[in-house]
Write a structure and sequence with these properties.
monooxygenase; 15 helices; eight-stranded parallel beta barrel; Diverse_substr_monoxygenases; binds flavin mononucleotide; alpha/beta; globular; two-stranded antiparallel ribbon; about 450 residues; FMN; flavoprotein; 2 domains; Monooxygenase; TIM Barrel
Length: about 450
């Protein structure tokens, strides 16, 4: 059996809404490059496969009363700029960043990720998102985000064009032959000519093919459109179910969609979300978590639930249930998160209870190193995931605890790698390198099949 894939999403002082309030936290961590580099190096000590930076290109401009108490994706670096700096300070860990298909053009994105792949020697990964907030939309000439399915339709064409651009050059196109004076072989340049519903591109990328052939593609859609898109294009998926049974359904559903696109189960790694809180004893771990939970301000609690429910909850009493008539008919942003909250409201929980128990696609697992390793082993061996996407509620504290206490236990059980192998992120993950469509037939199948029409 392949090793578990270990990935982590990193943001400032930690992923908990109150992490920055702890005494002694590095309050300006979100713009401290040394802080990120230290974190990435700790991840490399733990032989993590992926260091991931999430993003949305915008910031909230209303409800500042609550927002100003919760620095979630506020005062952050643009991901690829940050990852480029981290590339120079690390050697083996994969470097993933989010770029939205709703607000960019394929040419920019194709170019950015090939650049990162070259300067990291084959460690770049693109998290393809369709974005989920109107604050970002308003920065790009739109009043609101287009509807969910339209965003996925655009995303599908977007990725198709990006992959074609990634094949603008064959792997050995740049011959740099002083004797003949030939810098590149013109026969190995392939101009993209795409005229589609959303994009029109006629040209070639101005950078050589990526060391990985194509940077690795990540996706995290949980809706039907999202899963279909992932089945067609993604190589890593961040899953967002917090119970074993639901995660199993998601895993089987998504893997079951792969054959339709000529893909095998091993071509896609599904990572379960998890927030590990480790302690020397179960009580110590629980106390670490509750100390953070106690620090959440009620305004922030209302805002976090309201954001994913897509309703303004400011002013609602914390110790009463959210009125059923406030539930919108359907979600336009994150369907999986929305469904989780709606289920909690329908079960009669109060706003305070929901705010403390709602897990944004990530299960909090607290306990001793053995208990956390047991949980991970159960999910992995139970065919629910190929690995884990962690968030750490405090940084670098809980990350370091995990690397020092849980990773050795996982290594002892033979579940994770003891050291890195292979030259690129793809090789380390056991993902095949896309052959160039014009390369000699022996090199493998074409990297970019024709754009399937949406059904
Ligand atoms: C671990 C993880 C990381 C994510 N990172 C981002 C991100 O950086 N930017 C973003 O707009 N959405 C992000 N998402 C949200 C997903 O892209 C997706 O919108 C969400 O899971 C809802 O699925 P749907 O779009 O199919 O409805 C992330 C989701 C997960 C589980």
């Amino acid at each position: 059996m392949a090793n578990m894939v270990l990935a982590t999403l990193v943001q400032g002082t930690g992923a908990h809404p109150a992490s920055w309030l702890r005494t002694g936290s590095t309050v300006d961590a979100s713009l401290d490059i040394d802080f990120y580099i230290d974190a990435a190096r700790i991840c490399e000590q733990g032989k993590f496969d992926l260091f991931f930076i999430a993003d949305t290109p915008g910031v909230r401009t209303d409800n500042l009363q609550a927002w100003s108490k919760y620095p979630f994706y506020t005062n952050v670096y643009e991901p690829l700029t940050l990852l480029s700096a981290i590339a120079g300070a690390t050697k083996q860990i994969g470097l993933g960043g989010t770029v939205s298909t709703s607000f960019f053009e394929p040419y920019n994105v194709a170019r950015m990720f090939v650049s990162l792949d070259h300067l990291s020697h084959g460690r770049a990964a693109w998290n393809v998102v369709t974005s989920a907030d109107d604050y970002a939309a308003r920065n790009f000439g739109l009043d609101r985000l287009p509807p969910h399915d339209q965003r996925y339709e655009r995303a599908k064409e977007f990725v198709h064009v990006v992959k074609q651009l990634w094949d603008s050059w064959e792997d050995d196109a740049f011959v740099h032959d002083r004797a003949s004076g030939l810098y590149f072989d013109p026969a190995k340049m392939h101009v993209v000519d795409h005229q589609g519903k959303h994009f029109s591109v006629n040209g070639a990328l101005n950078i050589a093919r990526a060391p990985q052939g194509h940077p690795v593609i990540i996706q995290a859609g949980a809706s039907d459109a999202g899963k279909e898109f992932a089945a067609e294009t993604a190589e890593i998926v961040f899953a967002s179910d917090v119970t074993f049974d639901k995660a199993k359904l998601f895993y089987d559903d998504l893997k079951g969609r792969l054959p339709k696109y000529g893909r095998a189960a091993g071509d896609l790694k599904i990572l379960a979300g998890m927030a590990p809180v480790v302690g020397a004893t179960a009580e110590e771990a629980e106390a670490k978590f509750q100390d953070l939970q106690r620090l959440i301000h009620p305004d922030v609690a209302r805002m976090r639930v309201g954001r994913d429910l897509e309703v303004d909850l400011s002013g609602l009493p914390m110790d009463e249930p959210i009125p059923l008539e406030l539930i919108p008919e359907k979600a336009n942003f994150h369907q999986a998160y929305f469904n989780q909250i709606v289920a909690m409201i329908r079960s009669g929980m109060t706003l305070r209870e929901i705010s403390l128990e709602y897990e944004r696609g990530i299960a909090t697992v607290r306990g001793t190193p053995q208990q956390i390793a047991d949980h991970m082993e159960e999910w992995f061996a139970g065919g629910v995931c190929d690995g884990f996407m962690f968030i750490f509620y405090t940084m670098p504290g809980l990350l370091r605890d995990f690397v020092e206490m849980v990773v050795p236990e996982l290594q002892r059980r033979g579940l994770v790698q003891i050291d890195y192998s292979g030259d690129t992120m793809r090789e380390r993950l056991g993902l095949s390198r896309p052959a160039h469509p014009h390369a000699a037939p022996a090199a493998g199948r074409a990297a970019v099949p024709a754009l399937a029409t949406s059904d």
